[in-house]
């Protein structure tokens, strides 16, 4: 191990500290200008004097912004914090140099776990973008597809799969944990050894389920649409064969599944002496060609029977059906010789997916979040596609894979966001950041917190929650935010007001209003945030302390937050402070959350104007 | 006179959500693109849409346009010309040679992009047609009284009214509102035999916004079938059925009654009813783009049986994105733009590879 010396650069925040005492407390020698093996320097590389930098070239050096690490308070406390910070940095310097931010480059490789059209499309897209791709399929080969796929389209796509896609057959994903370089993945074919991938697509093969029809049907009578062979159906010479197609009688089925049922009904109706009755609660004709198919069925003699959801009564396992026809207002009956059942594509959700450190089960709570369209999840780098997400089979899955792959490529190659810097000497390893981060970025890795660069979207939720104020990415730390707020409010005339605006909703609305020449009240300070999640109670109270009469936080509507719950968190903080506002003699509207969409400029302008008027009257 | 010359790997016709999403996805893939927008400003139809959130986000996707515009303005790979129209196109070598003509009214407006100033010849390897669909003109369905009967609006007009705040406690405050679905969709008499996919979603969402703005109001939803519109949507339907009156009937006509429009409809097995409403909204469907035939001739793009443009069966290097290829919601159009971006990028890559051996 190298002998580490303390190189003291007396920056303004360190004036009152004795370098010799710090070095002694940290168990190191203080640099006297001699030869060095390794060093801890008390300032950043950028701020160090040029001569010092030249002197330290090639040595393992920990550049430590000591003034920021020690903070304020009594001198004895600051001395103790300095000693801890220096000795921790010395430990790292002794091992050699280390990057200033614990952010390893994400792995470039991509895992596609699943099978079928969506999985192949994702593998094709990722390979076309130059990433090494592993396709882990539960089947023998790539051509085998999910029950909901068109086998022809799948084999066509499998034939186009580039050679650099490594196919791992008979492989199941058993465990997935987000790591600093991406994801640590356990595959059943690899035993206990995890492998690291920069991004993961989960596209399990779809299954076809008949969950949408009534219970109590005799299986001997039933045939799911996918297993139907119309050739088997033919009426007797002297009569009719009655077949009922159940297409969403308990509750409506998705339009792709209704279209499949229509095709089955049409094929059956063209058989000799077969009378088909289609029973449904809603005619879901939104799939391409659905309306024409519906009309073709009617022209081919299919009887259309609408039933109230769940009001189809059956006897003898389905050999006798009865329902109230809403058009005729009459009770109708049918004794079908066979029942054909519509099916929906589903995929079992892996139990480990709800591992709350990887991805919280929010994507179930907020499905269709428009910011997470196209297969994205709140965990950047993890994509859920196909039947697992409820995407209709066919082209929609191709588009979903293409859209997700482009987002993934951007994350793995060209992402520039400020990464959180965890100040070791402040960090109490309480893991609040690990629990708070909606994107699953921070991990506790032995001695310190590590963040996955691909996962971080710089929302600042961690910095808002960290009780030790140990997270200080550029512009996020409380000291920086407080001082810029102070400058802004000092210049603003009375009544002073602060608008914290989320970059996804509040800021675009502010920008488009400003572009239209909107005149903001003179006392309004607009403070952009990446996400409302960065709001802390401290920041809210600091605004009031600095003289603001009103604080408004403009964030996304519930269910529309890129960081899933950033807006909820901000709302909760404001609500929890309402009692304290009364104690301070302030009206409850002194702090408010405004749910806003980027295009709701009028609402924002009205709210700010009303706020300015109320603040002016006080 | 010789035209100005431009070269671009991918030309995107249309600066609505599908075209913008395609350009952003191409930039993510490291491919440069040029967007040509006919109007003086970007955004297409989505720029008229209101936010449909009530207590929570309604997941309509209208707010994502702002995000796309910011991205498009900042990505160096994207070039944008507004007030520009493609007037001629011919295949040349591996790609296309497209003549662009400036359109009148091209002032520099707010938002990204600058107007095209002169006739320009543009050489490109791939073309993405993201020209959007055409909303049905409700005047084509004369018996619903649009343009004749006061108080009858198309859903697009309602979008604009809601986003400008013209409807609500401070403006027009109708006590009874009717939505008539499938205007220009699923209609054999008009030869429009397709479901427009999006109308159930937008009408019910706007109905809910009206109920929130005017809690005393009554909203009636005349429809044939409620179509599916995402997973969350399905879960919300029971709640919507409590908030609004769902009537499964297609009205026969809308006439001027005693100071307000009257809707004539018949429930199954009953006599026709005349009911007065303060506001009647016609949920107009999406159809093929007006310029589809012109663009079809320009690029030889293939069309499906309904007249929408398709990528399949069309000429090499021409891809279709968004509602030009069939009725699509905003979110679906953006994802579909990503598909066209993928197809165009792989064509550009294979041409570049072929050229450099």
Would you kindly provide a written description of the structure presented here, covering whatever features stand out?
Chain A is about 30% helix and about 20% strand. Chain A has four domains: about 5-95; about 110-205 and about 345-415, FAD/NAD(P)-binding domain; about 220-345, FAD/NAD(P)-binding domain, CATH 3.50.50.60; about 480-615, Rossmann fold. Chain A is built from 17 helices and 28 strands. A five-stranded parallel sheet of chain A has the order 7-6-5-11-22, with helices on one face. By secondary structure, chain A is of the alpha/beta class. Chain A is elongated, with a radius of gyration of 32 Å. In chain A, helix 2 links the parallel strand 3 (about 40) and strand 4 (about 60-65). Chain B is α/β, with parallel strands linked by helices and about 350 residues long. Chain B folds into two domains: about 5-135 and about 290-355, FAD/NAD(P)-binding domain, CATH 3.50.50; about 135-285, FAD/NAD(P)-binding domain, CATH 3.50.50. Chain B has seven helices and 20 strands. Chain B has helices spanning about 15-30, 65-75, 155-165, 200-215, 230-245, 290-300, 330-355; strands at about 5-15, 35, 80, 85-90, 95-100, 115, 120-130, 135, 150-155, 175-185, 220, 245, 255, 260-265, 270-275, 280-285, 285, 300-305, 310, 320. In chain B, strands 1, 2, 3, 4, 5, 6, 7 and 20 form an eight-stranded mixed sheet that branches. A five-stranded parallel sheet of chain B has the order 9-16-10-11-12. A three-stranded antiparallel sheet of chain B has the order 13-14-15, with no helix packed on it. In chain B, strand 18 and strand 19 (about 310) form a beta hairpin. In chain B, about 55% of the residues are buried.
Indicate the topology:
The complex is a heterodimer of chains A (618) and B (357).
Chain A: E1 4-7, H1 19-26, E2 29-30, E3 38-41, H2 50-55, E4 61-63, H3 66-70, H4 75-94, E5 110-114, H5 117-128, E6 133-136, H6 151-159, E7 165-168, E8 173-179, E9 182-187, E10 195-197, E11 199-203, E12 207-209, E13 222-224, E14 241-246, H7 255-269, E15 274-280, H8 290-299, E16 303-306, E17 313-315, E18 320-325, E19 330-334, E20 338-341, E21 344-346, H9 362-365, E22 382-384, H10 395-413, H11 432-436, E23 442-445, E24 448-451, H12 461-465, H13 478-491, E25 497-502, H14 506-515, E26 524-529, H15 537-545, E27 550-555, H16 566-583, E28 591-595, H17 601-617
Parallel strand pairs in A: 1-2, 1-3, 3-4, 5-6, 5-11, 6-7, 11-22, 13-20, 14-15, 14-20, 15-16, 25-26, 25-27, 27-28
Antiparallel strand pairs in A: 8-9, 9-10, 12-21, 17-18, 18-19, 23-24
Chain B: E1 4-13, H1 17-28, E2 33-36, H2 64-74, E3 78-82, E4 84-92, E5 95-102, E6 114-115, E7 120-129, E8 134-135, E9 152-154, H3 155-164, E10 176-183, H4 199-213, E11 218-222, H5 231-243, E12 245-247, E13 253-256, E14 261-266, E15 272-276, E16 279-284, E17 286-287, H6 292-299, E18 302-303, E19 309-310, E20 318-320, H7 330-355
Parallel strand pairs in B: 1-2, 1-7, 2-3, 3-6, 7-20, 9-16, 10-11, 10-16, 11-12
Antiparallel strand pairs in B: 4-5, 5-7, 8-17, 13-14, 14-15, 18-19
Helix pairs in contact in B: 1-2, 1-7
């Amino acid at each position: 191990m190298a002998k580490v010396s303390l190189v003291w650069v007396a920056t303004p925040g360190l004036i009152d500290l004795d370098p010799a005492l710090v070095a002694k407390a940290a168990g190191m020698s203080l640099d006297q200008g001699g030869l060095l093996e390794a060093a801890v320097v008390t300032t950043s590389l950028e701020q160090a004097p040029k001569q010092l930098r030249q002197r330290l070239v090639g040595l393992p050096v920990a550049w430590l912004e000591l003034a920021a690490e020690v903070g304020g308070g009594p001198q004895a406390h600051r001395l103790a914090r300095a000693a801890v910070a220096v000795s921790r940095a010395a430990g790292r310097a002794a091992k050699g140099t280390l990057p200033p931010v614990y952010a390893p480059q994400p792995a470039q490789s991509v895992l596609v776990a699943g099978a079928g059209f969506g999985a192949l499309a994702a593998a094709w897209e990722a390979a076309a973008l130059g990433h090494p791709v592993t396709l882990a399929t539960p089947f023998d080969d790539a051509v085998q597809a999910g029950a909901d796929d068109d086998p022809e389209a799948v084999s066509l796509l499998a034939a186009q799969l580039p050679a650099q896609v490594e196919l791992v057959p008979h492989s199941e994903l058993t465990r997935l944990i987000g790591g600093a370089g991406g994801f640590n993945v356990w595959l059943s074919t690899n035993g206990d050894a995890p492998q690291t991938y920069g991004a993961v697509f989960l596209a399990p093969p779809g299954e076809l389920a008949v969950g949408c029809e009534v219970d109590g049907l005799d299986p001997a009578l039933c045939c799911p649409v996918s297993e139907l062979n119309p050739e088997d159906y033919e009426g007797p010479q002297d009569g009719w064969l009655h077949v009922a197609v159940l297409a969403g009688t308990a509750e409506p089925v998705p339009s792709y599944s209704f279209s499949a049922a229509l095709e089955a009904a049409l094929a059956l109706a063209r058989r000799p002496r077969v009378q088909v009755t289609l029973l449904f609660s809603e005619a879901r004709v939104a799939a391409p060609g659905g309306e024409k198919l519906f009309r073709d069925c009617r022209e081919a003699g299919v009887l259309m029977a609408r039933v109230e959801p769940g009001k189809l009564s059956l006897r003898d396992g389905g050999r006798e059906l009865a329902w109230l026809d809403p058009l005729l207002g009459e009770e109708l009956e049918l004794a079908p010789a066979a029942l054909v059942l519509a099916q929906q594509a589903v995929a079992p959700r892996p139990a480990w997916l709800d591992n709350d450190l990887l991805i919280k089960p929010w994507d179930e709570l907020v499905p269709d979040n428009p910011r997470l369209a196209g297969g994205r999840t709140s965990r950047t780098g993890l994509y859920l596609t196909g039947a697992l997400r409820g995407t209709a089979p066919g082209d929609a899955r191709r588009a979903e894979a293409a859209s997700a792959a482009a987002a993934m490529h951007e994350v793995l190659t060209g992402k520039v966001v400020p990464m959180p810097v965890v100040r070791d000497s402040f960090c109490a390893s309480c893991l609040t950041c690990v629990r708070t981060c909606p994107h699953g970025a921070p991990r506790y890795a032995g001695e310190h917190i590590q963040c996955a660069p691909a996962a971080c979207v710089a929302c600042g939720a961690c910095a808002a929650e960290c009780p030790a104020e140990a997270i200080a990415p550029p512009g996020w730390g409380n000291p920086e935010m407080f001082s810029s707020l102070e400058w802004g409010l000092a210049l603003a005339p009375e009544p002073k007001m602060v608008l914290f605006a989320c970059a996804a909703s509040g800021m675009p609305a502010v920008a488009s209003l400003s572009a239209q020449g909107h005149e903001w009240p003179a006392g309004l300070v607009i403070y952009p945030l990446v996400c409302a999640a960065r709001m802390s109670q401290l920041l809210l109270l600091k605004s009031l302390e600095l003289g603001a009469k009103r604080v408004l936080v403009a964030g996304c509507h519930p269910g529309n937050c890129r960081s899933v719950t950033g807006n909820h968190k901000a709302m909760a903080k404001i609500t929890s402070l309402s009692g304290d506002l009364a104690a301070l003699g302030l009206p409850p509207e002194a702090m408010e959350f405004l749910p806003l969409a980027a295009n709701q400029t009028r609402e924002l302008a009205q709210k700010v104007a009303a706020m300015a008027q109320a603040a002016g009257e006080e | 006179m010789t035209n100005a010359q431009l070269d671009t790997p991918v030309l995107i016709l249309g600066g609505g959500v599908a075209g913008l999403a395609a350009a952003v996805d191409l930039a993510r893939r490291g491919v440069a693109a040029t967007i040509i927008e006919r109007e003086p400003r970007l955004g297409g139809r989505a720029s008229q849409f209101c936010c449909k959130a009530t207590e929570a986000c309604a997941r309509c996707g209208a707010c994502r346009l702002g995000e796309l515009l910011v991205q498009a303005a900042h990505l160096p790979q994207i070039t944008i010309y507004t007030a520009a129209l493609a007037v001629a196109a011919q295949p040349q070598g591996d790609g296309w040679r497209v003549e662009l003509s400036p359109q009148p009214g091209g002032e520099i407006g707010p938002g990204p992009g600058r107007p095209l100033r002169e006739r320009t010849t543009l050489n490109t390897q791939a073309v993405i047609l993201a020209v959007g669909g055409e909303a049905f003109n409700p005047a084509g369905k004369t018996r619903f009284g649009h343009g004749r009967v006061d108080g009858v609006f198309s859903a697009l007009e309602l979008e604009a009214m809601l986003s400008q705040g013209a409807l609500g406690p401070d403006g027009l405050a109708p006590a009874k509102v009717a939505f008539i679905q499938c205007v220009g969709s699923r209609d054999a008499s008009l030869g429009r035999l397709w479901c427009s996919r999006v109308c159930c979603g937008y009408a019910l969402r706007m109905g809910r916004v009206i109920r929130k703005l005017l809690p005393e109001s009554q909203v009636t939803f005349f429809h044939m079938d409620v179509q599916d519109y995402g997973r969350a949507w399905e879960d919300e339907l029971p709640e919507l059925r409590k908030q609004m009156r769902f009537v499964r009937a297609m009205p026969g006509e809308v006439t001027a009654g005693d100071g307000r429009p009257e809707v004539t409809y018949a429930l199954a097995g009953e006599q026709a009813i005349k009911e007065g409403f303060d506001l009647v909204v016609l949920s107009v469907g999406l159809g093929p783009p007006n310029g589809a035939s012109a663009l079809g001739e320009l690029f030889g793009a293939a069309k499906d049986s309904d007249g929408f443009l398709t990528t399949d069966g069309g000429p090499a290097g021409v891809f279709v994105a968004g509602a030009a290829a069939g009725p699509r919601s905003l979110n679906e159009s953006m994802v579909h733009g990503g598909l066209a971006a993928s197809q165009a990028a792989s064509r550009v890559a294979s041409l570049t590879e072929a050229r450099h051996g």
